[in-house]
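Q: Hi! New to this. If I give you a protein sequence and the SMILES for zinc ion, can you show me the bound structure?
A: Yes, paste them in.
Q: Okay, here:
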Amino acid sequence: MRRLLPLAGILAASCAHPSSRATPASPITAAELKHRVEIIADDSMGGRLPGSRGNIEVTDYIASEFKRLGLQPAGDSGGYLQYVPMISSRLDTTEHLTVNGAALPFWTGLVPQNPGNVAQTFDPAGVPVVYGGRLGPDRAAMISADSAAGKIVVFAVALLSDGRPDVRSGRYVPAFTRPAAALVFVYPELPPVTIYTHLTRFSVPSPTHAAPLSFQIGAATAQTLFGDPLERLSVGATARGTLGGRVRYLTPDSIQARNVVAILPGSDPARKGEYVAMGAHNDHLGIGAFGLDHDSVRAYNILLARQHLDGPAAGNPGARSPAIVVNVDSLRRIRPPRRDSIFNGADDDGAGTASLLAIAHALTKQHPARSILFVSHTGEEQGLLGSRWYAEHATVPRDSIVTYLNMDLFGHEYTGDPARSGPRYLQSGGARRLSKELGALIDSVNAALPEPMAIDYSWDAPGHPSQKYCRSDHASYARYGIPVAYFSTGYGVDYHQVTDEPQYLDYAHMARAATLVYAVALRVANLEHRPLVDQPKPDPTAPCRQ
Ligand SMILES: [Zn+2]
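A: Thanks. Here is the predicted structure of the protein with zinc ion bound:
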């Protein structure tokens, strides 16, 4: 028996006029999807980090497939690519922060998170440090907007029901703390393994997006800073100690981040100026700083998923102490350790990307009345950067996009939870938030399929802690009042792990799910009128609300 190192936590009956023809049998096959995923998520793509050679290669592949299918280019300057002016910046590890004058070394004293702001240097001198409360669903117990503004706000992380820290506590940070100078997340202890995303950050100039610098510290450091354990502080308490030093990101590099955009022109002259858009993301997390044993990681996460069915099985720093011990001996009898550091992103979002191409392939045979707009987004993992850029710089008139359909995490086979798995399982959401008609249309199209999906709408509930409505590219379109729907097989055991590889996907399941998205796109494209927006449109500059 050997205890495993845990992984660090790293960080979607209407008045509709039916189509004149019945939904055809699906032309989308598991074989085509598998072939495409194996290209997109191959080790040679190196995890497809924006600007990396692998991401350039995969976006070239998508563009060449759009061209081969006869789609019209709809990127910049008559090509298929839309360049996103992204910058990436690496942390200067020669600088550090101090607490009461003592250095907080990176990784052992402080773990920087992936911030989305554009400031290059963070110098805490003179910035008040306040306690913001313990993160969790009960936001009433957290600091108010006025008290947080301009300050360094320290949050205790949320705890799971067994007392272990919730690695996804960031989802509970109130949107109103964005004007804070920095956010600090306090874990009982820092994760023993860190992942590359902490070193590099990505951003895109945007009028609607600015997130503060954020980092993790351990409880002992927080106690030194405040003079008391956090449990004894009241929300809004000011630190007695001093936070000094600075965090600096090296001069940013401009990188070649690319959306890939194509159009299948509509067949009806009166409606071809309107677009049914659909998309997936072409980027993923790149290559990690640490090689982990692939088989142990997967065995660990399957056990973790069985124990914590409420959410993804991202590695949990708190798991170091008690619970999970895997019998590695049985794995070792099969084969020796296999070091792996490539985040292949087969499910996330190779599956969505393969489906986008397969659906494009299928739709070219259907002559839909409206045009179809295919958008492969970059920079989703870095904060929806590519979709945000597209929505703000759409290459067709934004108001002519009648619906956007998103596919992300679209083909894994096992979630750890029988109630959230199975050959017909599919999560969807978003549609009824702007257009009840679109929501009803999805249900009626699904019911008419030869193999209808069992659609789980529970993740779409307002306030749902997963924040799924705000966490993938559809949110960038919904922001502008475009009716959206997301489709996902959910968080699997390989979510954001080096084990998210093609051999673990269920291609028959993926084909059924892609068939639904295909049929919905076709139905919307052939509607007499665009889906009715019958709910209030959001303020595009406001933070997304689950
Ligand atoms: Zn994704």
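A: Residues 281, 348-349, 380, 408-409, 472 surround zinc ion (CB under 6 Å). Let me know if you'd like me to explain how to read the tokens.
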